Amino acid sequence: MIKIPRQKLAVSLLPLPLAIGLLAVPSQAETSLEEVLVTAQKRTENLQDVPISITAYTEESLNILRIENVADLGPTTPGLVTAPAAGIASGTRIWIRGIGSAQVSIGIDPRVALYTDGVYLGKTPGLAFDALEMERIEVLKGPQGTLYGRNAVGGAINLISRKASTESFSGKLKVGAGNYNLEEANGYINVPLSQSVAVKLSGMTRSRDGWVENKGPGPDFNGRDAEAWRADLRWEPLSTLSFDVAYEKNEADLEPQYSQSVFGDGTIGPGLGSLINPPETNDRLDKVTTAYALEKSHLDLEAYSVFAGWDFADQHSVRLIGSYRKADATDSRGFWPETDGSLLPWTDRIVSTTGQNHVLNDHKQYSLELNFEGKIADGLDYTAGLFYFNEDTGAGEDYTLTKDLVDFFSPSAVRSAGRIETDAYAVFGTLNWTPGAFGERLHVTVGGRYSEDKREGKVKTFVNQGPLPDFSALVFTYDTATGLPFSDNRESNTWDNFDPQIILQYDLNDNANVYASYSTAYRSGGYNTDATTLEGFTFDKEDMEAFELGYKSELMNGRLRLNMAVFYYDQSNIQVTEQDPAHPVRQNVFNTDGDSKGFEIEATAQLINDLTASLGYAYLDAQQDSYEAVFRPGTPDEVTVVNEGGSSGAPENSVFANFNYRRDVSWGELMANLNYSYTDSYDVTPGTELMSVSLLDARIATRWDMGDSGALTLAVWGKNLLDDEYHLDRINFSEIDGFNAPDVAWFGDPLTYGVELSYEF
């Protein structure tokens, strides 16, 4: 077999789009850009008419970019950062414009709201599911609350799936294969049963071996086996009345993510830290030998939803969305999987012979949303809504890093269990007014939202696996009033807020407009199940004021689309998490202030009839004020961590460039796509910096038109063609006083490539 170096392979693919162009016949392509439709304001509109900063993905662009889950949106959306959480394979953290959540605790709401078909997904654990038959995805930047069910501080991501349709019998099947033994298949079939009833069945299976080979016991690292299926039913008893019912099942078995020991800026013990697990290199490893077997993680999702729409009068409608969702996630991670579990005499920690940390989450949620939309008079429209959300989430963890009392019972582990119950209520609405006095060029939107969140939190931590029976003893969690550990705690509280919004939009001409918006947003207070002090268990709500100026245009007879936005966010009582030096896997929540400001540019141009180019750029300056984090005040174990401020999930610069070439040929169509993304280095948590990353992806395809029989498409693709090495997450253990252990980092995927064949009719 002839082996081609990866770097040469990547570079050799770059001229292929030009070569394809030389072979093709003259194009019959459109000379202007296609209209992009979105439903960001609960109605179908042209992207250019919506006074919100939005990045929209069509079904075709999702397929070309191989966006399979929410995490894949990060590199292709400037201003958006997605990352797993310290080896938690089933969870995804999301930041928009530097507003997001570094911690995945069940008691802390995400700042960015994720919706699937209008249903809010309440918790970060379990978000790493593969999306099934997406028709489009919309990324909305900035606070979203006057139109959506749950309050969103940083923005919202809407996943919109393909619905059952009574219009025609249709379907699609795609199969593919790639390196690391990738095997995948997905598709759907839509069957109209009558003029008013249709069903659609969708399915997906995808498996890939891990790219870090494990020569020791246990599985390889970073592999994935996932499958999902969905059933949709549509019933249209009247032309003005429709019902959509859906059931979805999603399962995944995930090999553990490899936490590679790397050199850090801190000091690893008095010359002895390297004995724990000496970092071999800061370069990405593809072969390791573990000292113990790590278990696979597992994700199990079930979702039911019903959507009813009724146009009850001329230009007035009501929509109902009801849902139930259940998610069970079991994650396993090992911070130093090469360690043999023996006692480390020069440190006050041991590594248990079980060698891993288990994180178990079970999440159940119900939601009900009622939306009204209509026209009051010429130039005066309204939207209004009521929302109810209930969630019951439990989390359990065991820790193999132990201290003080527990050392006496070695080997042992600290285990914790927490549960959060939430009832959230909201009423929201907007008025959209276009006064005739300004030639119908001025548009005024006034809206507001009232939210009320009732919460109850419970947490219990105990010692297990020792020679004594299980007993309650919070080794890391203290009641500072008594200086004694507390073993069980339960609190309840209610938080509420009113958030207004005003938007002024002015049409410069038929193809360009400017807008200015002001809004506020809040994130509910709650309970931190990872707390290490009693007073750290409860934290208060946070607030934000947001200002944005925007410009949207279509120029050069529709061949250039140019959108720009500048924004400023003033944040107060930001809920930040700080690692406890006594137990770095656990964190307390503190409050501080900060701001975020920046600007974004998105441009798409039809360079020639067959070639379209897109460019997105985001500049971000996000800062949090310095603060002191005091753990166990008033006890012998009191420690103060001074955080000098900073940010998380806020790269200063991010860029995405895309070239899309399409040409009609005698048998159908030739297509080539080249994508480049760059993300500056940024802190994933304040003080923990991830390196900058540049990614180059490509796809080449040909499509055969088969008339009434459908179409066949063959494509080859590659991602990270230059095999760039970059971190998805990192923990700087070496910078924690007294911990004496190497840093660990989780690397992103290396070069991957494959081929796919699809048939649609």
Automatic annotation (TrEMBL):
Pfam families from the UniProt entry? Plug, TonB_dep_Rec_b-barrel
Question: GO CC annotations?
Answer: cell outer membrane
Q: What is the name of the protein in this document?
A: TonB-dependent receptor
Q: What Gene Ontology terms for biological process does this UniProt record contain?
A: iron ion transport
Cite the TonB-dependent receptor-like beta-barrel domain residue spans from the record. 271-721
Record domain TonB-dependent receptor plug: where? 47-156
Entry keyword set: Cell outer membrane, Ion transport, Iron, Iron transport, Membrane, Receptor, Signal, TonB box, Transmembrane, Transmembrane beta strand, Transport
Compartments it resides in: Cell outer membrane
* Source species of the chain: Seongchinamella unica
* Signal peptide interval: 1-29
**The keyword Protein biosynthesis appears for this protein:** no
Topological relation to the membrane, as annotated: Multi-pass membrane protein
Instruction: Please report which protein family the annotation says this sequence is part of.
Output: Belongs to the TonB-dependent receptor family.
